[in-house]
Protein backbone atom coordinates (compact mmCIF):
# COMPACT_ATOMS: atom_id res chain seq x y z
CA UNK A 1 0.00 0.00 0.00
CA UNK A 2 1.44 3.40 -0.92
CA UNK A 3 1.80 6.34 1.44
CA UNK A 4 -1.19 8.22 -0.02
CA UNK A 5 -3.46 5.23 0.56
CA UNK A 6 -2.09 4.80 4.08
CA UNK A 7 -2.69 8.48 4.84
CA UNK A 8 -6.24 8.23 3.50
CA UNK A 9 -6.85 5.16 5.64
CA UNK A 10 -5.52 6.96 8.72
CA UNK A 11 -7.82 9.93 8.00
CA UNK A 12 -10.77 7.59 7.56
CA UNK A 13 -9.94 5.83 10.83
CA UNK A 14 -9.80 9.16 12.66
CA UNK A 15 -13.08 10.41 11.21
CA UNK A 16 -14.77 7.12 12.10
CA UNK A 17 -13.40 7.26 15.64
CA UNK A 18 -14.73 10.80 16.07
CA UNK A 19 -18.17 9.74 14.86
CA UNK A 20 -18.15 6.72 17.20
CA UNK A 21 -17.24 8.93 20.16
CA UNK A 22 -20.12 11.28 19.36
CA UNK A 23 -22.57 8.36 19.08
CA UNK A 24 -21.35 6.93 22.40
CA UNK A 25 -21.76 10.36 23.94
CA UNK A 26 -25.44 10.27 23.06
CA UNK A 27 -25.63 11.73 19.54
CA UNK A 28 -27.45 8.73 18.13
CA UNK A 29 -28.21 10.36 14.76
CA UNK A 30 -24.46 10.51 13.98
CA UNK A 31 -24.55 6.75 13.39
CA UNK A 32 -26.29 7.46 10.07
CA UNK A 33 -22.96 8.81 8.81
CA UNK A 34 -21.30 5.47 9.39
CA UNK A 35 -24.12 3.65 7.59
CA UNK A 36 -23.93 5.99 4.62
CA UNK A 37 -20.14 5.73 4.41
CA UNK A 38 -20.05 1.96 4.25
CA UNK A 39 -23.44 0.67 3.08
CA UNK A 40 -22.58 0.47 -0.65
CA UNK A 41 -19.57 -1.88 -0.45
CA UNK A 42 -21.23 -3.90 2.31
CA UNK A 43 -24.43 -4.20 0.30
CA UNK A 44 -22.47 -5.38 -2.76
CA UNK A 45 -20.77 -8.00 -0.62
CA UNK A 46 -24.04 -9.26 0.84
CA UNK A 47 -25.70 -9.23 -2.58
CA UNK A 48 -22.80 -11.12 -4.13
CA UNK A 49 -22.86 -13.71 -1.36
CA UNK A 50 -26.62 -14.26 -1.16
CA UNK A 51 -27.77 -13.32 -4.66
CA UNK A 52 -30.89 -11.73 -3.21
CA UNK A 53 -31.43 -7.97 -2.76
CA UNK A 54 -33.98 -8.57 -0.01
CA UNK A 55 -31.69 -10.86 1.95
CA UNK A 56 -28.75 -8.48 1.43
CA UNK A 57 -30.81 -5.63 2.89
CA UNK A 58 -31.87 -7.74 5.86
CA UNK A 59 -28.28 -8.77 6.57
CA UNK A 60 -27.11 -5.15 6.40
CA UNK A 61 -29.89 -3.99 8.68
CA UNK A 62 -29.21 -6.71 11.25
CA UNK A 63 -25.45 -6.11 11.04
CA UNK A 64 -25.67 -2.35 11.58
CA UNK A 65 -28.04 -2.82 14.51
CA UNK A 66 -25.56 -5.28 16.02
CA UNK A 67 -22.74 -2.82 15.32
CA UNK A 68 -24.68 -0.06 17.09
CA UNK A 69 -25.21 -2.16 20.20
CA UNK A 70 -21.52 -3.12 20.35
CA UNK A 71 -20.08 0.19 19.16
CA UNK A 72 -18.04 0.65 22.32
CA UNK A 73 -16.13 -2.52 21.48
CA UNK A 74 -14.66 -1.18 18.23
CA UNK A 75 -10.89 -1.35 18.32
CA UNK A 76 -9.12 -0.17 15.17
CA UNK A 77 -10.91 0.17 11.84
CA UNK A 78 -14.70 0.41 11.99
CA UNK A 79 -15.06 -0.58 8.32
CA UNK A 80 -13.11 -3.82 8.81
CA UNK A 81 -15.03 -4.57 12.01
CA UNK A 82 -18.46 -4.03 10.45
CA UNK A 83 -17.35 -5.94 7.32
CA UNK A 84 -16.68 -8.99 9.49
CA UNK A 85 -20.16 -8.72 11.02
CA UNK A 86 -21.73 -8.59 7.54
CA UNK A 87 -19.49 -11.37 6.17
CA UNK A 88 -20.42 -13.63 9.10
CA UNK A 89 -24.09 -12.78 8.57
CA UNK A 90 -23.78 -13.88 4.95
CA UNK A 91 -22.02 -17.12 5.85
CA UNK A 92 -24.64 -17.89 8.51
CA UNK A 93 -27.37 -17.30 5.96
CA UNK A 94 -25.66 -19.59 3.45
CA UNK A 95 -25.30 -22.27 6.11
CA UNK A 96 -28.97 -22.08 7.01
CA UNK A 97 -30.47 -21.77 3.57
CA UNK A 98 -29.17 -23.93 0.79
CA UNK A 99 -30.39 -22.70 -2.51
CA UNK A 100 -29.24 -24.02 -5.85
CA UNK A 101 -30.25 -21.08 -7.94
CA UNK A 102 -30.30 -17.44 -6.97
CA UNK A 103 -30.68 -14.43 -9.16
CA UNK A 104 -30.64 -10.68 -8.83
CA UNK A 105 -33.93 -8.84 -8.96
CA UNK A 106 -34.15 -7.88 -12.61
CA UNK A 107 -36.22 -4.79 -11.91
CA UNK A 108 -33.48 -3.29 -9.78
CA UNK A 109 -30.80 -3.50 -12.43
CA UNK A 110 -30.55 -0.90 -15.19
CA UNK A 111 -29.98 -2.30 -18.66
CA UNK A 112 -27.05 -1.00 -20.68
CA UNK A 113 -27.50 -3.36 -23.62
CA UNK A 114 -28.69 -2.15 -26.98
CA UNK A 115 -30.47 -5.05 -28.66
CA UNK A 116 -32.96 -7.64 -27.44
CA UNK A 117 -30.45 -10.38 -28.35
CA UNK A 118 -27.77 -8.81 -26.18
CA UNK A 119 -30.31 -8.36 -23.42
CA UNK A 120 -31.31 -12.03 -23.62
CA UNK A 121 -27.68 -13.12 -23.70
CA UNK A 122 -26.86 -10.94 -20.68
CA UNK A 123 -29.84 -12.26 -18.71
CA UNK A 124 -28.85 -15.84 -19.49
CA UNK A 125 -25.22 -15.35 -18.45
CA UNK A 126 -26.32 -13.53 -15.31
CA UNK A 127 -28.60 -16.37 -14.37
CA UNK A 128 -26.00 -19.05 -15.18
CA UNK A 129 -23.31 -17.18 -13.27
CA UNK A 130 -25.58 -16.90 -10.23
CA UNK A 131 -26.37 -20.59 -10.47
CA UNK A 132 -22.69 -21.47 -10.74
CA UNK A 133 -21.74 -19.15 -7.85
CA UNK A 134 -24.40 -20.77 -5.68
CA UNK A 135 -22.65 -24.14 -6.03
CA UNK A 136 -19.33 -22.85 -4.67
CA UNK A 137 -18.28 -23.40 -1.08
CA UNK A 138 -18.88 -20.17 0.91
CA UNK A 139 -15.16 -19.45 1.32
CA UNK A 140 -14.56 -19.70 -2.45
CA UNK A 141 -17.62 -17.67 -3.23
CA UNK A 142 -16.55 -15.01 -0.74
CA UNK A 143 -13.07 -14.78 -2.28
CA UNK A 144 -14.46 -14.58 -5.83
CA UNK A 145 -17.04 -11.92 -4.93
CA UNK A 146 -14.46 -9.79 -3.10
CA UNK A 147 -11.98 -10.01 -5.97
CA UNK A 148 -14.19 -9.84 -9.04
CA UNK A 149 -17.41 -8.14 -7.94
CA UNK A 150 -16.06 -5.76 -5.29
CA UNK A 151 -12.78 -5.25 -7.15
CA UNK A 152 -10.61 -5.49 -4.02
CA UNK A 153 -6.88 -6.18 -4.06
CA UNK A 154 -5.56 -9.38 -2.51
CA UNK A 155 -3.86 -7.28 0.21
CA UNK A 156 -7.13 -5.59 1.10
CA UNK A 157 -8.92 -8.93 1.17
CA UNK A 158 -6.24 -10.42 3.43
CA UNK A 159 -6.56 -7.46 5.75
CA UNK A 160 -10.34 -7.79 5.99
CA UNK A 161 -10.47 -11.57 6.30
CA UNK A 162 -7.43 -11.97 8.51
CA UNK A 163 -5.70 -14.45 6.24
CA UNK A 164 -2.77 -14.50 3.84
CA UNK A 165 -2.55 -13.23 0.26
CA UNK A 166 -1.39 -16.70 -0.84
CA UNK A 167 -4.40 -18.43 0.69
CA UNK A 168 -6.76 -15.96 -0.94
CA UNK A 169 -5.13 -16.31 -4.36
CA UNK A 170 -5.62 -20.04 -4.03
CA UNK A 171 -9.30 -19.58 -3.18
CA UNK A 172 -9.89 -17.17 -6.06
CA UNK A 173 -8.12 -19.50 -8.50
CA UNK A 174 -10.15 -22.47 -7.28
CA UNK A 175 -13.36 -20.46 -7.61
CA UNK A 176 -12.48 -19.39 -11.16
CA UNK A 177 -11.65 -22.91 -12.23
CA UNK A 178 -14.87 -24.23 -10.71
CA UNK A 179 -16.94 -21.55 -12.45
CA UNK A 180 -15.10 -22.21 -15.69
CA UNK A 181 -15.82 -25.92 -15.54
CA UNK A 182 -19.49 -25.17 -14.97
CA UNK A 183 -19.85 -22.58 -17.70
CA UNK A 184 -17.34 -23.64 -20.36
CA UNK A 185 -19.54 -26.03 -22.33
CA UNK A 186 -22.13 -23.35 -22.81
CA UNK A 187 -19.98 -20.27 -23.21
CA UNK A 188 -16.34 -21.17 -24.01
CA UNK B 1 -29.00 -28.12 -15.51
CA UNK B 2 -25.64 -26.45 -15.33
CA UNK B 3 -24.00 -29.65 -14.22
CA UNK B 4 -25.26 -31.47 -17.28
CA UNK B 5 -25.10 -29.01 -20.12
CA UNK B 6 -25.28 -31.65 -22.87
CA UNK B 7 -27.37 -34.27 -21.19
CA UNK B 8 -29.20 -35.10 -24.43
CA UNK B 9 -26.12 -35.31 -26.66
CA UNK B 10 -25.41 -38.88 -27.75
CA UNK B 11 -22.56 -38.70 -30.27
CA UNK B 12 -19.68 -38.45 -27.81
CA UNK B 13 -16.77 -40.89 -27.89
CA UNK B 14 -16.65 -43.66 -25.23
CA UNK B 15 -13.80 -41.89 -23.46
CA UNK B 16 -15.74 -38.68 -23.37
CA UNK B 17 -18.83 -40.49 -22.09
CA UNK B 18 -16.77 -42.07 -19.34
CA UNK B 19 -15.45 -38.67 -18.33
CA UNK B 20 -18.94 -37.26 -18.36
CA UNK B 21 -20.26 -40.11 -16.20
CA UNK B 22 -17.41 -39.64 -13.78
CA UNK B 23 -18.27 -35.96 -13.55
CA UNK B 24 -21.95 -36.79 -12.87
CA UNK B 25 -21.14 -39.15 -10.03
CA UNK B 26 -18.73 -36.72 -8.41
CA UNK B 27 -19.96 -34.92 -5.27
CA UNK B 28 -21.28 -31.40 -5.71
CA UNK B 29 -19.01 -28.39 -5.38
CA UNK B 30 -20.63 -27.46 -2.11
CA UNK B 31 -19.40 -30.69 -0.57
CA UNK B 32 -15.78 -30.54 -1.62
CA UNK B 33 -13.18 -27.99 -2.49
CA UNK B 34 -12.47 -28.00 -6.21
CA UNK B 35 -8.96 -29.32 -6.73
CA UNK B 36 -6.54 -26.99 -8.42
CA UNK B 37 -5.34 -28.02 -11.83
CA UNK B 38 -2.28 -30.08 -10.84
CA UNK B 39 -0.19 -28.89 -13.76
CA UNK B 40 -1.19 -25.26 -13.25
CA UNK B 41 -1.87 -24.95 -16.95
CA UNK B 42 -4.03 -21.94 -16.34
CA UNK B 43 -1.36 -19.83 -14.65
CA UNK B 44 -1.29 -17.36 -17.55
CA UNK B 45 -5.06 -17.00 -17.42
CA UNK B 46 -5.03 -16.34 -13.68
CA UNK B 47 -2.20 -13.84 -14.07
CA UNK B 48 -4.28 -11.98 -16.66
CA UNK B 49 -7.39 -12.06 -14.46
CA UNK B 50 -5.30 -10.84 -11.53
CA UNK B 51 -4.15 -7.90 -13.64
CA UNK B 52 -0.55 -9.11 -13.69
CA UNK B 53 -0.33 -9.59 -17.46
CA UNK B 54 -2.15 -8.65 -20.66
CA UNK B 55 -4.56 -10.78 -22.71
CA UNK B 56 -1.86 -11.32 -25.32
CA UNK B 57 0.08 -13.45 -22.82
CA UNK B 58 -2.90 -15.79 -22.64
CA UNK B 59 -3.91 -15.66 -26.31
CA UNK B 60 -1.37 -18.19 -27.58
CA UNK B 61 -1.05 -20.35 -24.50
CA UNK B 62 -3.12 -22.58 -22.28
CA UNK B 63 -6.43 -21.07 -21.27
CA UNK B 64 -6.85 -19.03 -24.47
CA UNK B 65 -10.24 -20.66 -25.05
CA UNK B 66 -11.49 -19.14 -21.80
CA UNK B 67 -10.61 -15.52 -22.59
CA UNK B 68 -13.96 -14.83 -24.24
CA UNK B 69 -15.85 -16.44 -21.35
CA UNK B 70 -13.95 -14.35 -18.81
CA UNK B 71 -14.44 -11.17 -20.82
CA UNK B 72 -18.17 -11.79 -20.63
CA UNK B 73 -18.05 -12.62 -16.92
CA UNK B 74 -15.99 -9.47 -16.31
CA UNK B 75 -18.64 -7.33 -18.01
CA UNK B 76 -21.23 -8.82 -15.67
CA UNK B 77 -19.09 -8.46 -12.52
CA UNK B 78 -18.25 -4.88 -13.52
CA UNK B 79 -21.97 -4.13 -13.76
CA UNK B 80 -22.49 -5.61 -10.29
CA UNK B 81 -19.70 -3.41 -8.95
CA UNK B 82 -21.82 -0.36 -9.78
CA UNK B 83 -24.78 -1.55 -7.70
CA UNK B 84 -25.57 0.72 -4.75
CA UNK B 85 -27.48 0.09 -1.57
CA UNK B 86 -31.14 1.16 -1.72
CA UNK B 87 -31.42 4.92 -1.11
CA UNK B 88 -33.68 4.59 1.91
CA UNK B 89 -31.61 1.88 3.62
CA UNK B 90 -29.88 4.29 6.03
CA UNK B 91 -33.23 5.75 7.02
CA UNK B 92 -34.72 2.30 7.62
CA UNK B 93 -31.78 1.15 9.71
CA UNK B 94 -31.87 4.33 11.78
CA UNK B 95 -35.58 3.82 12.38
CA UNK B 96 -34.87 0.29 13.63
CA UNK B 97 -32.18 1.37 16.10
CA UNK B 98 -33.00 1.82 19.79
CA UNK B 99 -33.64 5.41 20.82
CA UNK B 100 -30.96 5.32 23.47
CA UNK B 101 -27.23 5.66 22.86
CA UNK B 102 -25.23 2.43 22.83
CA UNK B 103 -23.83 1.50 26.22
CA UNK B 104 -20.20 2.28 26.75
CA UNK B 105 -18.56 -0.77 28.25
CA UNK B 106 -18.22 -0.46 32.00
CA UNK B 107 -14.71 -1.68 32.68
CA UNK B 108 -14.46 -4.14 35.54
CA UNK B 109 -12.33 -2.93 38.46
CA UNK B 110 -9.99 -5.92 38.12
CA UNK B 111 -9.31 -5.00 34.48
CA UNK B 112 -8.33 -1.43 35.30
CA UNK B 113 -4.60 -0.65 35.55
CA UNK B 114 -3.43 -0.16 39.12
CA UNK B 115 -2.00 3.30 39.78
CA UNK B 116 -0.54 3.70 43.27
CA UNK B 117 1.44 6.62 44.70
CA UNK B 118 4.35 5.63 47.04
CA UNK B 119 2.75 7.49 49.95
CA UNK B 120 -0.56 5.64 49.42
CA UNK B 121 1.31 2.33 49.29
CA UNK B 122 3.12 3.14 52.58
CA UNK B 123 -0.13 4.17 54.26
CA UNK B 124 -1.83 0.96 53.09
CA UNK B 125 1.11 -1.14 54.34
CA UNK B 126 1.06 0.63 57.73
CA UNK B 127 -2.69 0.08 57.94
CA UNK B 128 -2.26 -3.64 57.25
CA UNK B 129 0.48 -3.94 59.88
CA UNK B 130 -1.73 -2.15 62.46
CA UNK B 131 -4.67 -4.37 61.58
CA UNK B 132 -2.50 -7.47 61.93
CA UNK B 133 -1.20 -6.29 65.31
CA UNK B 134 -4.74 -5.57 66.56
CA UNK B 135 -5.96 -9.01 65.52
CA UNK B 136 -2.90 -10.64 67.12
CA UNK B 137 -3.36 -8.80 70.40
CA UNK B 138 -7.09 -9.59 70.61
CA UNK B 139 -6.31 -13.27 69.97
CA UNK B 140 -3.70 -13.26 72.78
CA UNK B 141 -6.20 -11.65 75.24
CA UNK B 142 -8.63 -14.53 74.75
Q: Your description of this structure?
A:
The complex is a heterodimer of chains A (188) and B (142). In chain A, helix 2 crosses helix 3 (53-69), helix 2 runs parallel beside helix 4 (78-96) and helix 6 crosses helix 8. Chain A has two domains: 1-100, Rna Polymerase Sigma Factor, Chain: A, CATH 1.10.1740.10; 108-188, Winged helix-like DNA-binding domain superfamily/Winged helix DNA-binding domain (Arc Repressor Mutant, subunit A, Orthogonal Bundle). The two termini of chain A are 36 Å apart. Chain A has helices at 3-24, 31-50, 53-69, 78-96, 116-134, 138-149, 154-161, 165-187. The longest helix of chain A has 23 residues, at 165-187. Chain A has 188 residues and is mainly alpha-helical. The radius of gyration of chain A is 18 Å and the shape is globular. With 142 residues, chain B is mainly α. Chain B has a domain at 14-81. Chain B has six helices and no strands. Chain B has helices at residues 14-25, 43-49, 55-59, 67-81, 89-96, 118-141. Chain B is elongated.
